[in-house]
Amino acid sequence: MDWKPDWGLRGRMVLTMFLLFALYLVFVGALWWTDSFFYLPLMGAFVLAQFFFSDKLALYSMGAKKVSEEEYPELHATVSRLSQQADLPKPAVAVADSRVPNAFAAGRSQKKSTVCVTTGLLRTLDRDELEGVIAHELAHVKNRDVMVMTIASFLSTVAFMIVRMGFWFGGGRDRQGGGGGFLVAIVASLVVWIVSFVLIRALSRYREFAADRGGALITGKPSALASALLKIDGRMDKVPKEDLREQSEMNAFFIVPLKSDVIGKLFSTHPATEKRVDRLRDLERELETR
Length: 290
Prior knowledge:
Elements: H1 7-33, H2 39-52, H3 54-62, E1 64-66, H4 73-85, E2 92-96, E3 103-106, E4 114-118, H5 119-124, H6 127-142, H7 145-152, H8 154-176, H9 180-219, H10 222-235, H11 241-247, H12 262-266, H13 273-288
Parallel strand pairs: 2-4
Antiparallel strand pairs: 1-2, 3-4
């Protein structure tokens, strides 16, 4: 496997992380100045719990279960072979009984990871396309994307919680006096949450590009992954709307997000499928000329 980095993509990810870091430094300073620093340990415990149980929460949300080699021998064999090619420990394998054709990876580390596919995906894709999707998810594991996104979104989650608590309890604090500092903390938290929301969405989209590239290099077949993305995206219109609504909360995990409106696409966690396919076709041509 020729796992060469895309330096342009990495540069954009580093820039986004730097902007998040600078924003969060300002936010921590605002919390300290307004004596609201005590929120951090509480919210930190919440985010850590979410981090350590992210795989179980994701599987539960999808109604998925881990499956044995006896139940899905070909799927296990594919995951095992691609994991070896990616130089990764074999993750747990799970299947969700869903008509939505999709897949996701979860877990806090390379040794504690799970790759999940839906029954709709298994029925939709051919062998090469399925390998491309699984390789994409393994690239997420190799790039430690769950850990990166959890760290990146930590203070954003804190900011969101402070804003919500401000609406719940802010009025009472103002009536008791001394609520001015708390109001400043709420305003600062709102600004931080909005800006970080945009930056984290950008970071997530860059990481999807990186996982596409990594998955294509694992299999050596960028065109197969491109075909899978187009096929999954095209099948979304044929899935019953109630199924899409039930699984919309998993959009950030899916290889292809569920359909959304114009605003939803603007702040999507994923790039447009067409852009992903174009990059994969460029990579295909690059590999052919080597």
